[in-house]
Predict the 3D structure of the following.
Amino acid sequence: MKHPVTQFALAGLAVLAVFGAGALLALRSLGHTEALRDARQFATLAGQGVVEPAIAPGLLGGDREAIAAVDRIVQERVLGERVVRVKIWSRDGHVLYSDEPRLIGSRYPLDDAKLDVLRTGRTQAELSDLTGPENRFEQGQGSLYEVYLPVRAPDGTPLLFETYQRTSSVASTGRRIWMPFAALLLASLGLLWLVQVPLAWRLDRKLRRTQQAREALLVHAVEASTDERRRIAAELHDGPVQELAGLSYSLSAAAQTETSPAARETLDRAAAGTRDSMRKLRSLLVEIHPPNLRASGLQAAMADLLAPLQARGIDTELTVEPGIGLDEEAERLVYRAAAEALRNVQRHAEATRVRVAVTRGGGHVRLEVTDDGRGFAPGERERRREEGHVGLSLLEELAARAGGGLEIRSAPDEGTTFRLELPQT
Ligand SMILES: Nc1ncnc2c1ncn2[C@@H]1O[C@H](COP(=O)(O)OP(=O)(O)OP(=O)(O)O)[C@@H](O)[C@H]1O
Ligand SMILES: [Mg+2]
């Protein structure tokens, strides 16, 4: 898996890219709308502010003087980088004026959009269809916007004023509007990202350090508890266990010299009871302070685990493959699993026989604990687990974490087989 900070940085970059692209598109369309508005305003200013006052009454009749007067104004003040053509139409479709003289006097009936402008007085803009015959002289100028609006002759006759503006100039106006915003936006997004990455990196380092501290604390706590168990075991062993041993010895000795049979029997029973308590204490010692596996060896440690079962009259059999040589972790897990399996046999199985085997082969170590007890139905374990009995589930987890597995086979009255497998090279 990649480093979390790298992941964070990449995810941040992806979000930034998506957001940035969305914002750029929105800005661009905003710029475009603005530019179109600008084109319309320019046409309105040219038509109503500049050309309309120069229209003489004679223009409607095709008077040369009147045409020349409009042409002067158009050439001087309207045509340029942006506007490449101007036309003035009468309502019936005659071109009354154009800066292209070949068009003047010809007639192309106005379409609905243009008639609409004359009716409503609203300015219209659209991408020019340069294939129309009235537009044949505008070809070769690139794509053009037609913007048309109504103007009035001195006698009040409504006329249509039309400009053709280069789309490239409209687009560049748009760019001038949105580019600075886009640059600012991208810069601040990038900056935000740059600021976040070191922050995330610091946070990650802090988290890691906290986690390490927690782990160290846990290890320390486990060690402390092991120390404490060792101390209690030592005190029990050196104190009560030794005293009980002495006591049972004295009681037996007293029984030997006692003449009254009743008293002797009482003393014998007391001596036996004391020895029994001593044995119980000793097996408690094994539980609270498990043997040092390395020192005593798996075989001896497993034999100790079987002792309480033998004491209950259960027939036991133990085989540990000679020279099995497991690594420390596997050895500990095998011991722990055997302890749980045998505890279960003692508590639940009502068995008369139990067999324990530790073998190696095929890159695995295998522990098998088989009993001939009452077994259990599949649902029982589930039910017990819900009541908080998690011995086997915990082992399953430990085995999985060590890369191995745990398998329990059982059926009512058919005994139980417990099998743990761990990788071992
Ligand atoms: N050898 C066995 N013979 C019969 N039943 C068994 C045997 N081993 C396990 N079981 C059944 O499976 C159940 C689950 O065992 P598990 O070890 O998970 O829990 P537990 O022993 O009941 O409680 P703990 O959490 O103390 O181990 C047991 O309650 C018992 O019903
Ligand atoms: Mg159990």
